[in-house]
Amino acid sequence: MSLGYRAVGWNRQKLRYDAVLVGGVVLFLAAFIGIGAIVRPEATVETLWIRGLGTCALFLLHVVLSIGPLARIDQRFLPLLYNRRHLGVATFLVGAAHAGFSLFQFHALGGVDPLVSVLTANPRYGSLGQFPFEVLGLGALGVLFLMAATSHDFWLHNLTAPVWKALHMLVYPAYALLVAHVATGVLQAETDPGLAVLLGLGVLWVVVLHVVAAFGERPLDRERSPDAEDPFVDVCAVDEIPESRARVVTLAGERVAVFRYDGKVSAVSSVCQHQNGPLGEGRVIDGCITCPWHGYQYLPETGASPPPFTERVPTFRVRIEDRRVLVDPRPNPPGTRIEPARIEAAGAHVTTDEFYVGYAPTAPRRLAQRTRRVAIGLLALASVIPVVLAVRQSRFEDGSFEYGTVRGFEGILEARPYPHLLVARPGTPGTGASSWSSWPLVAFGKRGAGEIAAGLDGRPVRLEGELIYRGGRTMFEIVGPGIEPMPPPSGAALLALPRPERQDLGEWTLVGEIVDAKCWLGVMKPGRSKPHRACAARCIAGGIPPLFVVREADGREEAFLLVSSAGGPVHAEVAPLVAEPIEITGRIVRDGDRYALRADPRTYRRVD
To answer: Which of 253, 267, 494, 563 could make an S-S bridge to 316, C-beta 3.0–4.6 Å?
Structure first.
């Protein structure tokens, strides 16, 4: 309790708690990213960070939701409850870092504002399998932000405890949104069922804990009714109340805490005015009822906090007959002084259990030992769970992106159907012939090279950039000043080389997935499936060539450049169809080492 507000009222206990919390987060991320880099060396560091932060935030939320029912089941978990808000704020910060990385990776550097992209990249709200899982995560993050922003007692005081409590109960919808976010997102791209089992076990753990805690509370809610002639209710024997402790009973629909202290008995509402904490589980310390959650105090005779504090709870009239405690179920206004009932001299039932007060400089010895064991257990989980998750990830694609390695190349630029560079390479030895490699050209971010290549169709050029390649296919991201025409002598030699002949391989009907060539070849891991849907849609709409990837029965993949029936580019019209099973009937045309699938996008068909 305090008269003023500070950002964080750190004491020795809070510093230790936060040190363990930060250490656990660092341990979790280090284990996930480190082990992930070892067992999945083909993964990009951005992907490992995104997944590591996301799984860490979900793990922290499971811990947050476990503390409350654990403290109801066993009061020795109360030290964790006292500092739970720090854990909740940390959960939001880790989740926000995950969202920030994801927003930049999948939605930034395109032609649409990233936040707008999250809401519009996937419009399939009517499909369970293709539901936009990013929106679910964004909704959960919004709730966690609201809770973190109002976690300080300033908001608790000004919103009032009931409103503040109702607001923070939104953590349960946030948890449901996050579980749905994972289930409809990354789990649809992962082939290992063990990951879904782990998520299911986490949900089961949370549900069972709350059910067990709820059943444990049921006896407290048994209504005690008065006799017809006497409004007072017999609640218990005096000797059933431990010294400086309370017996909690339900009267007129409200839990009442009946405290025994210094040869007296008083009754007050069991609901603390701070966060609706259970006053009846508290203890009388220095003459004041002390809440076990956060240490708020009330005088037992008046239900009022000692001056200068202003919190008040209702009081109840009490009398003792034949060493039985009787309570009037009609509450008095909060802060009303009621004379305590006096106990005749008799031995008091003194408890030896340890009581934790969070603002105290030290915790009781046995309770501190128990808390340390719990902390060690949580740290162990924070090291084991990320290892299991990292190991069970599906294998990523083998593509590579030589980011930061700038190379210079010469070739002939062709603008249709998409800008690409024809690079001459030596042909079969002894024949004197030459063959060509066709490298699609793209710009930085989610943009094609159409504007950069304008006016250079068919001309020999020089350009600098970074290579992107996978399985014998190569792409070139242009950096630096752009594309420069080659002078006539060297350019004429390139133009004199024979071009590859175009071959029509006939009509085919294929089932596969539309991806953007840049990410699929090596920039993004994964560069396909539902988690990459929004990014692929933005890349293709931004001018990056679309590919149609067909997976053979033996696991091999074939990729065809998607073009219109007339051989022209397709962009925005195919972007809404990415990351779904699609059937296309069209003609396959071979141009050197490039295979194109010619078909009208209006004839593409989703496969259920």
So the answer is: 267
